[in-house]
């Protein structure tokens, strides 16, 4: 292989690698302008000619009919919790940060008023758990449900729909 062929081969490899690099390191549609120009792909994957520029509407996610599974978008992040884990020979700790998904904006105000009660409830539930109870995914799901039920028992104006562990470290 002479020098010219080697350079051409390297250029071809680079040109082939650029789309792969863009796919891996950039978000989809990051470089697209959401317009169809000339021959555009349709949903079937075939090419069709278009004569005008057509802005594409962003796809809206289909809304679920059930209110229980629909996300409200009302979130309230609680302060960090660090508790001793119950019934352990060695001293074990659980550190977690919790965000609550709420049914109504009124619940945010109620949580602020009852901050001490909410923290006490969460600490009581967390510190009552053994290490094996929270060590696996099923235990975390059970803990999530237990916390939701305990918090909902303290609320009057709405409910906690879901609970998210932003941090969860047990050692």
TrEMBL record:
Subcellular location(s) per record: Cell membrane
GO biological-process terms attached to the record: bacterial-type flagellum-dependent swarming motility; chemotaxis
Coiled-coil regions listed in the entry: none
UniProt keyword Endoplasmic reticulum present: no
A cellular component annotation (GO) from this entry: plasma membrane
Topology class, membrane: Single-pass membrane protein
Keywords of this entry: Cell membrane, Chemotaxis, Flagellar rotation, Membrane, Transmembrane, Transmembrane helix
Residues annotated as transmembrane: 6-26
Family under the similarity heading: Belongs to the FliL family.
Stated role: Controls the rotational direction of flagella during chemotaxis.
Protein name as it appears in the record: Flagellar protein FliL
Native species: Candidatus Desantisbacteria bacterium CG_4_10_14_0_8_um_filter_48_22
């Amino acid at each position: 292989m002479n020098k010219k062929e080697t350079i051409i081969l390297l250029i071809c490899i680079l040109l082939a690698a650029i789309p792969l690099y863009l796919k891996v390191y950039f978000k989809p549609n990051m470089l697209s302008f959401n317009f169809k120009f000339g021959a555009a792909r349709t949903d079937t994957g075939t090419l069709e000619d278009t004569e005008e520029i057509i802005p594409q509407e962003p796809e809206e996610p289909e809304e679920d009919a059930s209110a229980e599974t629909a996300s409200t978008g009302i979130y309230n992040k609680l302060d960090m919790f660090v508790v001793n884990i119950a019934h352990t020979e060695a001293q074990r700790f659980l550190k977690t940060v919790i965000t609550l998904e709420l049914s109504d904006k009124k619940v945010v105000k109620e949580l602020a008023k009852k901050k001490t009660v909410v923290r006490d409830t969460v600490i009581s539930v967390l510190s009552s758990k053994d290490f094996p109870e929270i060590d696996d995914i099923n235990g975390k799901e059970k803990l999530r449900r237990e916390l939701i039920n305990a918090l909902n028992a303290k609320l009057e104006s709405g409910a906690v729909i879901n609970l998210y562990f932003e941090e969860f470290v047990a050692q």
